[in-house]
Design a protein that fits this description.
The chain is an alpha/beta fold. It contains nine helices and 15 strands.
Length: 338
């Protein structure tokens, strides 16, 4: 028998988690829960043998369930995950981990106190492309990372309860924090409600990071084309990652700027540009959600700390909350704790 898992929230994303969990031999995908009966009927059609319920206490009160995956909208993450952790269940929680920093801190503390695995589905940290980027950056071929620029644009999908930064930027933050290893010190966000009446549907997030590095994230639900790109500018070489490129997601550009060793005035400032080859490393792709679910089950089984643990979820929520404060202050700079 595998690890017995229950999933709460089977709207758009939850069924993807269930499909991947069901394919893993280390998992006994036991029951799913949703307060919408239509979603449960849909799951019954997809998986006739799987138990369904509209009462979350059926998962919480079942001592045979080892772990719960929380896949509801963001404001539901904290109360549902807290109940699961307090009942002694390991928890996999969708990104972003919670709607508030103090909620994330509390979940981390409960998981620690009860010796339970708390993992966040930072899906991008389980993709071949992002891990290849991490490997390239850590190998030093790019030199020091000076700047990261991310664009995540599309027409839709509009969310009701969170703005576009909370919805889309977690993926870019995974690249900035996990792959590029940058340490943001402050956040400045300008956002606009172009079409959405309640939350920002377009935003530009500027992160000032340690060692004079910086990162910019452009996210939008109101854009004509789907764009998913990251540019990493290093002191020696540069890299572009295009998640939508079917054959070569990563291009490494042997390009850089050579500055003179010393100059006194701008008039004396000269630089030369180096143009070399472009390389496209091969990626061994597998479904990121499957890799992520497998890692969660392995952590439950062995007690290993997950790659995207509660602390990393908390780090991300701190940036997202600071971004909201910056939007409210018309793009004012909000400092993050070092
Ligand atoms: N990792 C990724 O790439 C990725 C992609 C999309 C969505 N997500 C995340 O997945 C989560 C869900 O997003 P979605 O688009 O599937 O939302 P959704 O609104 O389509 O689905 C949420 C479901 O949860 C159910 N629900 C809410 N509260 C409940 C409760 N207390 N008990 C039982 N059921 C409850 C709703 O009825 C609904 O069916 C969000 O946190 C989102 O950020 C992650």
């Amino acid at each position: 028998m595998g690890i017995k898992v229950g999933v709460v929230g089977v709207g758009y994303w939850g069924p993807n988690i269930i499909r991947n969990l069901k394919q893993l031999p280390t998992c006994d995908m036991a029951i799913c829960c949703d307060m919408d009966e239509k979603r449960l009927a849909h799951m019954n059609r997809l998986y006739p043998g799987m138990k369904t319920t509209s009462n979350y206490d059926d998962l919480i009160g079942d001592p045979s369930i080892d772990a719960i995956a929380v896949c509801t909208h963001v404001s539901g993450h904290y109360p549902l995950a807290k109940k699961a952790l307090e009942a002694g269940k390991h928890v996999l929680i969708e990104k972003p981990m919670t709607a508030k920093v103090d909620e994330a801190e509390e979940l981390v503390a409960i998981a620690k106190k009860n010796g339970l695995v708390l993992m966040v589905d930072h899906t991008f940290e389980y993709t071949a492309g992002v891990n290849k980027m991490k490997e390239i950056i850590e190998s030093g071929v790019l030199g020091d990372v000076l700047y990261v620029h991310c664009s995540r644009l599309n027409l839709g999908i509009f969310q009701r309860d969170i703005n576009v930064v909370w919805d889309l930027a977690p993926h870019d933050l995974s690249v900035i924090l996990y792959a590029a290893g940058l340490k943001p010190r402050s956040v400045q966000t300008v956002g606009a409600k172009l079409l959405h009446p309640k939350v920002e549907d377009m935003a530009l997030v500027n992160l000032k990071c340690a060692n004079n590095a910086s990162a910019v994230i452009h996210v939008s639900w109101v854009d004509p084309r789907k764009v998913r790109t990251v540019a990493v500018v290093g002191s020696k070489q540069m890299l572009v990652y295009d998640d939508l490129d079917p054959t070569a997601k990563i291009h490494i550009y042997d390009k850089c700027v050579d500055n003179p060793p010393h100059y006194d005035t701008f008039g004396e400032f000269l630089c030369s540009y180096h143009y070399g080859d472009i390389n496209m490393p091969r990626l061994q792709e597998s479904e990121p959600l499957s890799v992520m679910c497998k890692h969660f089950l392995e952590c439950v089984e062995t007690g290993k700390t997950p790659r995207s643990d509660g602390e990393s979820g908390l780090r991300m929520v701190r940036i997202l909350e600071a971004s909201d404060r910056s939007i409210a202050a018309n793009g004012g700079e909000i400092m993050l704790d070092a």
